[in-house]
Design goal:
Layout lengths: L1 E4 L3 H4 L3 H9 L3 E6 L13 E6 L10 E4 L4 E5 L12 H12 L13 H11 L9 H4 L3 E2 L33 E6 L4 E2 L2 E2 L14 E4 L1 H7 L6 E5 L4 E9 L6 E5 L23 E7 L1
Length: 282
């Protein structure tokens, strides 16, 4: 049994065929989610249970969240959309009590969010101040994450820089594909088709250098197929764009079907920003 909290696991992963096959291998999947997304309709072999939950702004108790400036802040919540939806914490606590009981761990205590914050403060380094945030309403930076003075966690206290060799331009007929997000998008959630950042309508498109478009034998708003050993996108509309020759860009998560599951040796993340692809005129 796999419990998955929120998110679009299928849609955000590389190699969507592989992702679907992997999800199908899990006999029982329990999703806790605020909104239906592609994960709930792909890779659904076996038993699938989707439990609706309250969003962060609908929580009945005070919660915390981290801002884009690395501040941990207290949230008072807000009015609920539905009168029969529980929070994630309540559902997890309830299931843990039914399955494991409270003998080894008092899961019932975690129905109170302050108890969760106190546990985080005791366990996670840098989060000590979360223990008292409900009482003092004082936002804080996680310790060691933000530097207000030029003092770094190195032996001499100085930052360490190194020169990185730039990759050589592609010398074959292949292109280097980077996946991108639009202005009207949050993670895999698409709020609108128009991309204010790049002044583009639609998302089933590929941004290309004008010289590469001519060399390929197509034109602005022509149709191409993009493919590699991982997958393919058919009848994608070409858009002229100020991008380096040999490089193209397409939207995430639509282009995830082309991203392989291989990962970088150091970061252990897939190469969403550099995928070798072949483009042919449709």
């Amino acid at each position: 049994v796999a419990f998955m909290l929120g998110g679009n696991l299928y849609g955000s992963n590389p190699d969507l065929s592989y992702a679907e096959k992997s999800l199908n291998a899990i006999p029982t999947k329990v999703y806790l989610t605020t909104t239906i997304n592609p994960t709930h309709v792909h890779g659904v072999d076996g038993e699938v249970i989707v439990l609706p939950v309250a969003t962060r702004d609908e929580e009945p108790q005070k919660t915390t969240q981290e801002s884009m400036f690395n501040y941990v802040r207290l949230s008072d919540g807000g009015p609920a959309r539905l009168d029969n939806v529980r929070s994630e914490a309540h559902i997890i606590s309830y299931l843990a009590q039914q399955i494991v009981g409270n003998e080894e761990v008092n899961f019932a205590a975690f129905e109170e969010y302050q108890n969760i914050r106190e546990a985080i403060a005791e366990i996670v380094p840098g989060f000590e101040d979360i223990k008292t945030i409900e009482q003092n309403k004082q936002e804080f930076h996680i310790k060691g994450r933000v530097h207000h003075t030029p003092q770094f966690n190195t032996s001499d206290g100085k930052a360490a820089f190194r020169v990185a060799d730039l990759p050589m331009p592609t010398q074959t007929d292949e292109f280097d594909l980077m996946t991108i997000r639009s202005e009207g998008q949050f993670n895999t959630v698409i709020y609108e088709e128009y991309d204010l950042y790049r002044d583009q309508e639609g998302r089933w498109i590929v941004l290309m250098n004008p010289d590469d478009i001519k060399k390929l034998g197509t034109q602005h708003k022509g149709k191409v197929h993009i493919h590699n050993a991982t997958g393919r996108m058919d009848a994608v509309e070409v858009r002229e764009y100020d991008i380096a020759r040999g490089c193209v860009a397409a939207y995430f998560p639509e282009a995830n079907v082309l991203v392989p599951t291989t990962t970088d040796g150091r970061s252990k993340t897939p190469a969403f920003k550099q995928v070798k692809v072949t483009i042919s005129v449709a």
